[in-house]
């Protein structure tokens, strides 16, 4: 059986996305050597292309940031979403098995029902209530089945970053054009900076190569919890604006094709068991991220339509 080298190249798939950009940027700053491929450069649904890419790069670690993330569209296009989130992940996991490399696969809180009252443990029983959640669960199972020792599933949620449209950037933009905002206050989760998740993915990959971070499920979210309303208020506060301009409302005010989980708080015990620190409290991490988010949004690089959609998630 092939075994991963203690060091060597890393391969990032889905490198053009918000998280993929931050993973690639961190590898560029800290090493090791890496190759970053976006969707146009590597079609994960093509087994021959994936096999060639891994044979060419010969990575020790693959970080899979590629995914179908259009939660609502998946309700009517589940087969297409499954092809990317499920079948393509199976293709990648199979190729990683043949090459003997570690696979870090990014998944989602949507694999859970979202009706708990305490943080979901990594060992919690998945029960997705959306097409998106079902397709991501299929990808998780492919990784864990194909790579029981070298497959690492990292579930995350409520991502924001400088490299794409997201809720925090939308709040920054809308603060300048809206006197008041109505924001959902009956959904709880963990706002998570993509740069923090990238940092933990690199630490996990290094731990996997060192033999200290076994395969399985990890939860890559910030500590603490918040509602979208509380996140919006904190964004206003960091802008120096009046948080009272943000008004609480319910999910019924923003009916979506895919129901949003009421409770998406995840536990982090696997990190500690592997000797790795989980991400810190969400408020402190948002404050750290804010200058980059503000610069990116004021630069106007995010798509307006996507940002409006993100504001309601």
Determine the fraction of residues in helical runs and give it as a percent range.
Answer: 40-55%
Number of helices: 10
CATH class of the domain at 10-163 and 192-222 and 264-280 equals: Alpha Beta
The low-confidence parts are 1-6, 301-313
Radius of gyration from the CA trace? Answer: 19 Å
CATH superfamily of the domain at 10-163 and 192-222 and 264-280: NAD(P)-binding Rossmann-like Domain
Shape: globular
CATH structural architecture of the domain at 10-163 and 192-222 and 264-280: 3-Layer(aba) Sandwich
Mean pLDDT rating? 93
Largest sheet: 6 strands, parallel
Q: How big a fraction of the residues is strand?
A: 5-15%
User: How many runs of DSSP E, i.e. beta strands?
Assistant: 12
Strand order of the largest sheet: 2-1-3-4-5-10
Q: Give the CATH topology of the domain at 10-163 and 192-222 and 264-280.
A: Rossmann fold
Order of helices and strands: EHEHEHEHEEHEEEHEEHEHHH
Secondary structural class: alpha/beta
């Amino acid at each position: 059986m092939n075994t991963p080298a203690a060091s060597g190249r890393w391969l990032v798939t889905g490198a053009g996305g918000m998280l993929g950009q931050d993973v690639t940027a961190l590898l560029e700053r800290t090493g090791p050597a890496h190759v970053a491929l976006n969707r146009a450069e590597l079609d994960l649904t093509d087994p021959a292309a994936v096999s060639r890419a891994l044979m060419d790069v010969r990575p020790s670690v693959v970080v899979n940031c590629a995914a179908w993330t259009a939660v609502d569209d998946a309700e009517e296009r589940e087969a297409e979403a499954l092809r990317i989130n499920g079948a393509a992940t199976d293709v990648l996991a199979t190729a990683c098995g043949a090459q003997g490399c570690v696979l870090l696969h990014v998944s989602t809180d949507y694999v859970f029902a979202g009706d708990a009252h305490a943080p979901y443990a990594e060992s919690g029983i998945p029960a997705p209530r959306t097409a998106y959640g079902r397709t991501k669960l299929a990808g998780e199972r492919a990784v864990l089945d194909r790579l029981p020792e070298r497959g690492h599933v990292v579930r995350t949620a409520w991502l924001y970053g400088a490299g794409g449209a997201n809720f925090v950037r939308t709040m920054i933009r809308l603060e300048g054009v809206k006197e008041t905002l109505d924001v959902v206050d009956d959904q709880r989760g963990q706002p998570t900076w993509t740069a923090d998740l990238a940092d933990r993915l690199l630490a996990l990959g290094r731990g996997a190569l060192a033999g200290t971070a076994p395969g399985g499920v990890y939860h890559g979210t910030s500590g603490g919890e918040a509602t979208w309303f509380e996140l919006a208020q904190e964004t206003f506060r960091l802008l120096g604006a009046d948080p009272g301009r943000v008004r609480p409302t319910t999910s019924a005010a923003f009916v979506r094709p895919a129901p949003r989980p009421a409770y998406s708080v995840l536990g982090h015990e696997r990190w500690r068991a592997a000797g790795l620190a989980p991400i810190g409290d969400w408020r402190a991490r948002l404050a750290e991220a804010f200058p980059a988010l503000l610069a990116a949004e004021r630069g106007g690089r995010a798509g307006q339509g996507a940002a409006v959609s993100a504001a309601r998630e």
